[in-house]
Amino acid sequence: DTSAIVQGGGGDGSLPDVSGITPSSIGSYDDAPFTLPSRDGTTSWLLISADLTDSTVITVGIDLSDDQRILARLILVQLVVGALVLVLLGVAGYVLVRNSLQPLVEVEHTAAAIAAGDLSRRVPEGDDRTEVGRLGRALNGMLARIEGAFQAQAASEEQARTSEGRMRRFVADASHELRTPLTSIRGFAELYRHGASGGAGGDNPETGRMMGRIEAEATRMGALVEDLLQLARLDQHRPVESLPVDLGELAADAVHDARAVQPDRTVELDLTDSLTDVPVVLGDEGRLRQVIGNLVTNALTHTPPGTPVTVRLSEEPGDPDAVTVTVADQGPGMSAEDAERVFERFYRADASRTRAAGGTGLGLSIVSSLVAAHHGTVTLTTAPGEGAAFAVRLPRSGPAGQD
């Protein structure tokens, strides 16, 4: 029983490589096509077998090199066409998305213009059937309401500024006009008290008491007029003098004056070790003297007799370019509500006591305005039962910093 494979074609290397094929293995394919590589490995063959007799199997094949070249070209064409289609689809998608987002870009530009202060800008309104179109319409409605609200606010503020300016001019003019008659009233009252008018000795004592009341009220009104005039000048933001002022000297004078007025009170001057140099600032000496004097007077007025008062000069740690003047007392202190309003004009935490002491309710307002004119700050630290401490922080200008 012998078997053999007969292959035609001579020694051509492109023929199928059947070196590993036997007749029995060929018969195992059961008439199904199968492939074999060529002898030189450059191509493949598609083969199919058929039984001629019980012992004879014939196998025929076809060279697949042409088909493989065609398939390679088809694959290359598909890859190129697919890449071109993807590029075209990407470009088309980019253009479509960009065009669809253009209204949102306009919204962005409009928002930037509005943030810069141009409230008249509006976003373009597109098709109401689209989300972007409905968004633009809603935004324009909101912007119109916002612009109207800002215009109304601006008009109200302008009207308020105009009214405030008129009121300030009225206060200044009225205060100026009241100075002369008030001076006359005080003069006549003083003449009566000293007997220069010839009636002090024989008049009814009640008349003398009434004349004393007239003089006291005229004095209080005169102080009020002077305070109003000073506030009117400060409201005009006129520049203050800028000369070296020794705060230590002003504080010492304020303490000396307070001891002279109320010798039974303990008023101390404290120059703390935190001072690294002479406490000199640039400013108006007269106005800074008034700041410290008003704070000391306020402490003496609003604390019980015998309450100690301290005037302290210091520097904050890490802040050598400023000097802090603190007027502190150990009195009853004040509530948080009073502390928030203490620098308002005509505000009195204890109205009856302030009026009895001849106060106008403008002293701390003047302090706040004068400190602001010197580019400083004034703060209050207080609590009920813990006293009060007014701290005035002013920019320092030592002798070495002068030209």
User: Compute the gyration radius: what is it?
Assistant: 51 Å
The CATH homologous superfamily name of the domain at 243-401 equals Histidine kinase-like ATPase, C-terminal domain
Give me the CATH architecture of the domain at 243-401, please.
2-Layer Sandwich
Strand content: 15-25%
State the name of the first-level CATH class of the domain at 243-401: Alpha Beta
CATH topology of the domain at 243-401: Heat Shock Protein 90
Assign an overall shape. Answer: elongated
How can the largest sheet be summarized?
Answer: 5 strands, mixed
Query: Between the first and last Cα atoms, what is the distance in angstroms?
Result: 129 Å
What percent of residues adopt helix (DSSP H or I)?
40-55%
How many helical stretches? 9
Structural class: alpha+beta
Along the chain, the helix and strand elements come as: HEEEHHHEHEEHEEHHHEE
Tell me the total number of β-strands: 10
Q: Uncertain segments of ≥5 residues (pLDDT<50)?
A: 398-403
**What's the arrangement of strands in the largest beta sheet?**
5-7-8-10-9
